[in-house]
Amino acid sequence: MRKRLLGAAVALALAAAAGAVGLVRHDEAEKRKQAAQTVKVVHWNICGAAQNCANRGATHAGTSVARLADEAQRRRPDLLSVNEICRAQYEELDLLLALKGWRMAGAYAQMHDNVPACGGDSSYGLAVFSREPLTGPVQFRPFTVTGDEEYEAQGRIEQVRRGMLCVPTSARGRQLALCGAHSGTAPGQLAEVHHWFADRAAFPPQLPVVFAGDLNQQPNEASLAGLYAHTRGEKDLGEPDGRFIEADERDRDWFRQGGAGGVRCDTKGVSRCRNGAPTTVDDSRKIDYVFATEDHFTAPDGRTARFPESDHLLYEGTFRFRQ
Hints:
4 helices, 14 strands, 6-stranded mixed sheet, Endonuclease/exonuclease/phosphatase domain-containing protein, alpha+beta, Endo/exonu/phosph_ase_sf, Endo/exonuclease/phosphatase, signal
């Protein structure tokens, strides 16, 4: 009898152990599956050559260009968006990414051509990079609404030509459009962005889109309503009717803050809020964003990191492709 009981106990223990191993393997398989669907985006306004930049136009160690290359090597983003970058800095970043073993395909758009600190052709603008190849032509759409912005250097005054840069590429083997922008304070520029993304010929509903940039607008402003895809909250100045989720919109620590220019949301009543942690160093505003189309992505998550080389925080966003 004792032998039978002992045998039964051993059999049960073995079965339990096998079940536990099965659960571990299932969990590991699920984690691998989610990792295979996760897209990581890094965005940073590097303060490449503006008057208040620490290392104007430079690319050597200790500059924001070198820092971004190091962070890309460490964080291993699928997609990268960069604002306030000289053409020479873009070329150096492209080289550094390859040297550090994280080669990415890039595109650059010129927004100013009178920034002496940039050297060379004095070109200054924005850039996007993808870990996977670009699969079609690069397109830069200048804003028709200028906001009457001007840039003065060496006795010349010129209009600032802001706009949106888009490239076709892929992430995790799935086609998408990657777009970056550095808009100004003129709300009409984001209205143009909303209009462009609503163009079904340029951005078909079945095409995933990732959009990042320093937009110089805070989350609760009416200009952002054309991007966010979810409902109104307190202090919301516009009715959201956009296509996008934003990386930091589930950060409950900021739902009731409103201090970063965000909507105030009920932490018990909603799971998403037009808010998020500040992205600027000196005035605690959230003006940098990482968006992804709601129809194609889920599980947004955002985090920031502060470095001395720029007046903006580096912003990392992650999403998962929907099944």
